[in-house]
Amino acid sequence: MKKYALILVAAFMAMAQSVSAQVDHDDFGVWTTVEVKKDFGKKFDISAEAELRTQDYSQAVERWTIGLGASYKLVSWLKADIGYKFIDKQQLQEVTRKGNVVDNYWSPRHRVYASLTGKVKFGRFEFSLRERYQLTCRGEQYVTKWNAEGVEIDPERVKAKNESVLRSRLGVDWNIRKSPFTPFASCEMHNVISDNWEIEKLRWIIGTKYKFNKKHSIEVGYVFQDVNYDYNQHILSLGYCYKF
Domain limits at 209? Predict the structure, then answer.
């Protein structure tokens, strides 16, 4: 089993390296998540989540999120879930093609999603495929802007935008006998339906869950994300979950 796990990890890392060679620069950030989950029997649960992400080599906040979700096990191998998230994302200062400077600003959005996750076991490995549809709505806003001489000019108009995305994720968990650790790896592709199915992001994750007891667990992982084949993000992912 260890041999197969090492082969799987090597394959994920090789894919990440192949994408890395195609982009101009890298960034580093930290994603932290706190989740509270309530089970109602073996099939249904609800959850609340708060998340904070950093960017620009972890010198600035990228976004913060709060959300609510619910899932229901349709059959032993298939689960459905729905949810809502409020996201406030920070856009960093940038220079336009005309040489004007657009100030950094916060961009709130609303997101709803629905997904199906199928699972199958092979020995002590559990493979999963999740297909998630999400709709994100961003309102219109005006942002402070200066010219090259530092004089404030007419504000930059950021148009309202609705984005439909299909997220396809293939993953595997390794259930180690008599161990609180559960290593995992996954690969996810973000297809923007509202933009002719353009691949917006490719995301690889490798990490482990650690279960203290039935109520408390943590998750630590490394995320490699390629954004629009433009830049790479290397992310330290930290999560805590409380079940009751």
Answer: 2-243
